[in-house]
Amino acid sequence: VVGKFKQTRKKADNIYHIGVGKLDELRDLIAETQANLVIFDDELSGNKIRNLEDELEVKVTDRSNIILDIFAKRAKSNEGRLQVNLARMKYNITRVNAFQNSASKGLGMRGIGETQMELNRRILKNKMYAVEKQIEELKRQRELRRSRRKENSEKILNEWLEIAVINNEMITLTRQTRIYTCACNIYFSTT
After folding, report:
1. What is the C-alpha separation between 60 and 52, in angstroms, rounded?
2. Which of 2, 51, 71, 174 is most solvent-facing, going by the fewest CB within 10 Å?
3. How far apart are alpha carbons 18 and 139 in whole angstroms?
4. Closest by alpha carbon to 14, among 40, 41, 51, 39?
């Protein structure tokens, strides 16, 4: 961290989120320290991020994006990675229009066709739907494995109790003669 700014305003600026004076101070600090990233401790709209990046000529991000990055780095399981991916898509869907260039208008005249922004949002929503389905499938598989483990542990316990009852005489004989044998919970164990 090379610098920190705080600004108290009644309402955030519509273009840059901060005032022009603070923007100039921030630009000077970036030039002085050669910083390559600016982090805002507030949620920024896509347009504000784009405007700040154009003005400051460095990458600009906000608190939510930093949190998503941290979760993405720490996600170990497949389900965890999918959940972080879904959260990032939900975060980005409102920012789709900010990162489009002005040349990507709809086909034909205004109102006809699908704009690039609408197309990108639709693609992103389809990806979100697919990821949600994958997460649901993983949850279903986890529940199925959990129920099977429970059934198997009860079955193994019952088998072990049956073996103990059947082999009770052998266990008693083994204790009396001090001969140690394997008392496994496997049928017809020979070792």
Report:
1. 7
2. 2
3. 43
4. 51
Task: Report the chain's terminal Cα–Cα distance, integer Å.
Answer: 65
Query: Can you give the pLDDT at residue 99?
Result: 52
- The rounded distance, in Å, linking the Cα atoms of 118 and 3 is 39
Do 128 and 90 form a contact (C-beta atoms < 8 A)?
Answer: yes
The radius of gyration of the chain from alpha carbons, rounded to an integer in Å, stands at 31
157-166 b/e (C-beta count within 10 Å ≥ 16 → b): eeeeeebeee
Q: How far apart are CA 125 and CA 139, in angstroms?
A: 21
Could you tell me the pLDDT band of residue 102, with boundaries at 50, 70 and 90? very low
Residue 45 · residue 12 · CB < 8 Å:
no
Instruction: Quick: pLDDT tens for 144-182.
Output: 998 888 877 777 666 655 555 555 555 544 444 444 445
- Give me the residue label for tokens 């003669």: 177
Task: Identify the three-state secondary structure at position 99.
Answer: helix
pTM strictly above 0.70: no
Determine contact, residues 58/37, Cβ cutoff 8 Å.
Answer: yes
How many angstroms separate the CA atoms of 106 and 54, rounded?
25
pLDDT in tens, 11-29: 888 888 888 888 898 899 8
